[in-house]
Write a structure and sequence with these properties.
- The protein folds into two domains: 50-145 and 251-370, Periplasmic binding protein-like II (D-Maltodextrin-Binding Protein, domain 2); 149-245, Periplasmic binding protein-like II (D-Maltodextrin-Binding Protein, domain 2, 3-Layer(aba) Sandwich).
- The protein has 15 helices and eleven strands.
- It is an alpha/beta fold.
Length: 372
């Protein structure tokens, strides 16, 4: 019995020890699992964020300061077209220039306004170049050659040919290209101005005087010539024009200023001329559109203005023309030939080097500015 009891006790002890061993192992396993879980649950240490470099805000461009320039012009395609095109196509704005336009009836009046300080820059036709040669102004940009001058006779007053002008009343503006055409026309038939009665009159007065029949003939330019021919119909007849004397006379137009303004405003003149050259180039392919712009500005009918687009050699201007003409001396030759006309007509006393009154360097710098 004692043996049986001892055996049972021994068995209980073995079971107890085994149970304790298992419990310990289980607890150890649980502890290790917990440890692993704890490791997994531990938050990862975040690396410090790299600060992104601050992007500078783009600087706002300051609005370009505009240079105001007071410009005189005459209400026709030859005088106004590149000016209006440069303004309306935005070429002046590109160069930081704001133009203030003032309408005049002739070049001499424009030069007088510059001398008094009321105008900075003028666009002149052929006739007023005489005053530049005489030192009253300087040329800084060439315009197209004019073909717009005509001598017109009143058929009802017996004027059907140039020879019929003898003893007749002829309205003209002294020193203009139209006046020179009149002189050349008279010479072609052996007459001089002494053989006719010259009525000195500005362009604004010629049209109503001619249409009303107060004069026998006139020497003037477009658009006045177009208005006269339209209003008078068969009563008016063109007796002579530029095309009749291209071998003797090339009538150049130009942009001019005073020597004083040129000395203190070279940069303005370069930028102004650059805008004009660009406008002249654009005008070549957009003549009708530009004519309509000029008609609106001058308050002349589109029909009349469109009728004048063939009255200038537009190809003698613009960036493509200037590139070659400046390099090969064509521009200089134009002004030399023009001066010869004044010499032959007795309008000036002696020949003057064209470099004295033509600023070729401004034209070149303007071309370079457009082709940087």
């Amino acid at each position: 019995m004692k043996k049986i009891f001892s055996l049972i006790l021994a068995m209980i002890l073995v079971v107890s020890v085994a149970g304790c061993g298992n419990t310990t192992k289980q607890e150890e396993t649980k502890a290790e699992t917990k440890k692993e879980e704890t490791k997994q649950e531990e938050p990862k240490k975040e690396e410090p964020k790299k600060e992104e470099p601050k992007q500078e805000e783009p600087k706002k461009e300051e609005p370009k300061e505009m240079t105001k320039v007071r410009v005189a012009y005459m209400p026709n395609m030859g005088s106004a077209s590149s000016l209006i095109a440069a303004r309306d196509y935005g070429f002046f704005a590109e160069q930081g220039i704001e133009v203030v336009l003032t309408k005049f009836s002739g070049g001499p009046a424009e030069i007088a306004a510059m001398a008094s300080g009321d105008i900075d820059i003028s666009q002149i036709g052929h006739g007023a170049h005489k005053l530049c040669i005489q030192g009253q102004a300087v040329i800084f940009q060439m315009e197209a050659s004019s073909l717009s001058d005509e001598v017109i006779g009143n058929v009802e007053r017996g004027v059907k040919t140039v020879a019929d002008l003898k003893g007749k009343k002829v309205a003209s503006t002294a020193g203009t290209s139209a006046d020179i055409i009149l002189t050349l026309a008279l010479e072609s038939v052996g007459l001089t101005k002494d053989d006719v009665e010259i009525i000195e009159m500005d362009a604004n007065g010629v049209v109503p005087a001619m249409v009303s029949g107060k004069i026998d003939a006139c020497a003037t330019w477009s658009p006045g010539t177009k208005t006269i021919l339209k209003e008078m119909g068969d009563k008016a007849l063109t007796l002579a024009n530029n095309a009749d004397y291209v071998d003797k006379a090339t009538f150049q137009s130009s942009f001019i200023t005073t020597e004083k303004y040129a000395k203190s405003n070279e940069d303005v003149l370069v930028r102004f001329a650059a805008a004009i050259q660009k406008a002249q180039e654009t005008r070549l392919d957009n003549l009708e559109e530009v004519a309509k712009m000029v008609a609106k500005e001058t308050e002349i009918s589109e029909e009349v203005m469109l009728g004048t687009i063939g009255e200038s050699n537009w190809a003698t201007a613009g960036t493509s023309f200037m590139k070659k003409a400046l390099a090969d001396g064509t521009v200089k030759k134009f002004y030399e030939n023009q001066q010869r006309i004044f010499l032959n007509a007795g309008a000036i006393e002696k020949e003057v080097p064209v470099e004295n009154y033509v600023l070729f360097d401004i034209m070149q710098k303007a071309y370079d500015l457009n082709n940087k």
